[in-house]
Sequence to fold (267 residues):
Amino acid sequence: MRKHAGASASLVVEDTTKAPRSERMRRGLSRRLLQAQEVEREHVALELHDHITQALCSILIRLEIMTGNLPAQATESREEAAVISGLVEEAAENVERISSRLRPSVLGILGLIPALRGAITGFVKRTGLDLKLACGRLHGRVTAEAELALFRILEEALQNVERHAHARHVTVQLEQTGAFMQLTIRDDGVGFETKRGPARGKVRGAFGLLGLEERATSVGGSVRIKSAPLAGTQIVVRIPLVKAPEPVNAGRAGSALQLPFPPAHSR
Ligand SMILES: Nc1ncnc2c1ncn2[C@@H]1O[C@H](COP(=O)(O)OP(=O)(O)O)[C@@H](O)[C@H]1O
Ligand SMILES: [Mg+2]
Fold:
């Protein structure tokens, strides 16, 4: 990591059960909005998959049949059909990519770490940046909702690195600290002045960091954003672990999920 210059500022958003009633109501509403957004995303993802992908596949099959029926000397038409076929395939791949970003199904099927890995792999492919993922030894669990929150937070944080940071190195760390699951995303990019950050209402139209905070607080967690010009950015998210122990091999159907953590490692 580049040596960070100067003192860095930070902003902290803590969830507290002693928050005033209006604040608790706002958080409740925000949580329901986030849940509704996820339901809508899932709906759109399924629509895309069921209708658009299916339709594109039908087009491909019919195109193939049509090409097979073309006379041998119709080389131009065959070439054109091959071009169309390539375009349709590309469109189908794009639809699947959009669909899987809308609905991180891998999260529900495989769990948090493979889902985080998937997001990271996509980021590395797009940006070519050096990204290290480190997972500590984790024994606790967080709720399914909290897993989704962590996943969406990572997505937003990586998108910010891609858009704004001009970083060379990025580190993502998932670890257990006491009764919390902690996700840290650190970059050595240009950083920014957090006092002027969106949480202070001075950056118009910047909902990413605010959304990130909403995500964390909606599942009882907190976020600390530490950044300063030319000093990189660090985002630390802490989500409380589920308290009640669950039977081993409880499966992934419940709201509290067993996280299949491998030993400490890095990519
Ligand atoms: N990792 C980062 N490195 C540098 N600047 C950042 C980073 N993350 C956020 N910022 C700054 O904070 C601003 C607000 O971020 P955000 O709320 O996500 O909105 P948006 O990404 O839509 O601009 C960004 O416009 C950018 O100036
Ligand atoms: Mg953003």
